[in-house]
């Protein structure tokens, strides 16, 4: 049974907690190459293309994404699909190369609403049985 569907842009950790204050969002502090290696090593059934597009599917999740990088860092990642909070956390931790992802900035589309990752993940279904 599919869980909540979403469409987000994921950015790096915001130094202040006021996401709506404007200004540029920070990049995710890892390279495209390192993130790609982690995805292919750590997530079964992931398909990663050289252009940065990827798909990850399983019995209870289906997520497609696009990694946008420049200056040796991931500028942001577009993610859309459906999965529970546990699988989304696993995906983002793998992409970022860290478990410290709660302060990452998330723009929820199409509303263009800013949240931190923890707040966004808490809005998803907790976990599939």
What does this structure look like?
The chain has 129 residues and is α+β, with helices and mostly antiparallel strands. It has one domain: Sporulation inhibitor of replication protein SirA (TATA-Binding Protein), CATH 3.30.310. Helix content is 22%, strand content 36%. Strands 2-3-4-5-1-6-7 form a seven-stranded antiparallel sheet. Helix 1 crosses helix 2. The radius of gyration is 14 Å and the shape is globular.
Describe what is shown at a glance.
The protein has helices at residues 32-42, 85-96, 117-122; strands at 5-13, 46-48, 53-58, 61-70, 73-82, 104-108, 113-116.
Structure keywords:
alpha+beta, TATA-Binding Protein, seven-stranded antiparallel β-sheet, 7 strands
* Physical arrangement of strands within the biggest beta sheet: 2-3-4-5-1-6-7
- What does the average pLDDT come to? 91
Proportion of residues in extended strands: 35-45%
**Structural class category:** alpha+beta
How many separate helices?
3
Cα distance spanning the termini: 10 Å
Roughly how many Å is the radius of gyration? 14 Å
Give the total of domains. Answer: 1
Order of helices and strands: EHEEEEHEEH
CATH topology: TATA-Binding Protein
Shape summary: globular
Characterize the biggest β-sheet: 7 strands, antiparallel
Counting DSSP E segments of at least 2 residues, the number of strands comes to 7
CATH class: Alpha Beta
Relevant CATH superfamily: Sporulation inhibitor of replication protein SirA
């Amino acid at each position: 049974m599919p869980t909540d569907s979403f469409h987000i842009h994921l950015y790096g950790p915001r130094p202040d907690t006021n996401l709506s204050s404007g200004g540029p969002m920070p990049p995710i502090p890892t390279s495209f190459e390192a993130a790609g290696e982690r995805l292919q090593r750590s997530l079964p059934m992931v398909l990663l293309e050289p252009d940065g597009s990827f798909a990850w599917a399983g019995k209870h999740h289906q997520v497609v994404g696009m990694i946008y990088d420049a200056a040796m860092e991931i500028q942001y990642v577009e993610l859309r699909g459906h999965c529970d909070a546990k699988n989304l956390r696993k995906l983002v931790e793998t992409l970022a190369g860290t478990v410290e992802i709660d302060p990452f900035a998330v723009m929820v589309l199409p509303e263009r609403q800013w949240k931190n990752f923890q707040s966004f993940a808490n809005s998803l279904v907790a976990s599939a049985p």
